[in-house]
Design goal:
By secondary structure, the chain is α+β, with helices and mostly antiparallel strands. It has 2 domains: about 70 residues, no CATH class; about 140 residues, Immunoglobulin-like. A 5-stranded mixed beta sheet has the order 3-2-1-5-8. The longest helix is centred in the first third of the chain and has 34 residues. Bound molecules: copper (II) ion (CU). The site of copper (II) ion has 7 residues, from loops.
Length: about 280
């Protein structure tokens, strides 16, 4: 290979690298500038929650990250300190540094400290899980969720009136962020809602990312239950099956539409009327 060609290749590689770094920086700047991205960062990558329970989950998530990062800072500092100040000395070819095996205080320290850390994580997780999983049974709106291969049936019960929505596997080529497909579950804002989950065939999982929560949907005599209290936030939120349940699992899409309470009452009335 001629020296000129080698230089050209090297220059090309360097140019490519510079281009890549510039593109990455541009992307990072563009992402950092949008307020949506800042919000996303403040939530640690979670979507914006729409239930009271989701705020509990968000706080737990943020706290866990802060604790993990604080631990990381201590560990990284120790690693850097050890590698910077305790390198092999030039004149100590065959000499080991002083060994600290069977040092009781240190061994107790690195047994007790992780146990305390795990206990703290466990305490907050158990406390919040208990709060999230509590089912009082007095919710004014009850939704029977049936997950089947491969869609959903929602039976919403409000003051003795029922609305039923059932779907078929969606056409994924038509799915977009603007127009959700599949059955739509209409629910009121500022309301306690109970979900009863059941499947006639295999295990599915009912997942609405905006609830920051999902729960398995079992066949047989198992009926998983949970309650949410919606915040005052209207909108349409995506939902999906989160348990690989068969060939068309990915087509088990649905959406939840949160509407004002008066609109919800009107919706149930119309649906119940048309059903009769
Ligand atoms: Cu499924």
């Amino acid at each position: 290979m001629s020296p000129t060609r080698r230089t050209t290749r090297r220059q090309l590689a360097r140019r490519r690298l510079t281009g890549g770094v510039a593109a990455a920086l541009l992307l990072a700047t563009a992402t950092a500038c949008s307020s949506d991205a800042v919000d996303q960062w403040s939530r640690g990558g979670m979507p914006e929650g729409v239930t009271e329970q989701s705020t509990v989950i968000q706080t737990l998530w943020n706290g866990a990250w802060i604790a993990a990062l604080a631990t990381g800072v201590v560990v990284w500092a120790l690693i850097l300190w050890a590698s910077a100040f305790h390198r092999k000395k030039k004149n100590s070819v065959d000499q080991l540094p002083p060994q600290v095996r069977y040092n009781l205080p240190i061994e107790i320290l690195y047994t007790v400290v992780p146990v305390i850390m795990v206990a703290v994580f466990f305490f907050f997780t158990a406390r919040d899980e208990t709060a999230i999983m509590k089912v009082d049974g007095d919710a004014p709106v009850k939704v029977a969720v049936e997950g089947y291969q491969w869609s959903w049936r929602f039976t919403t019960d409000f003051q003795g009136q029922k609305a039923v929505t059932a779907g078929v596997p969606v056409d994924l080529s038509k799915q977009s962020l603007q127009t959700p497909q599949g059955p739509q579950l209409v629910l009121p804002v500022n309301t306690k809602i109970q979900f009863d989950l059941h499947s006639p065939d295999v295990i599915h999982s009912f997942w609405v990312p905006a609830f920051l929560f999902k729960q398995d949907v079992f066949p047989g005599n198992v009926h998983n239950k949970f309650e949410i209290t919606t915040l005052n936030r209207t909108g349409v939120f995506f939902g999906r099956c989160a348990e690989l349940c068969g060939v068309d699992h990915s087509r088990m899409l649905f959406s939840v539409k949160l509407v004002p309470q008066a609109e919800f009452a009107q919706y149930i009335k119309t649906q119940a009327g048309s059903a009769q």
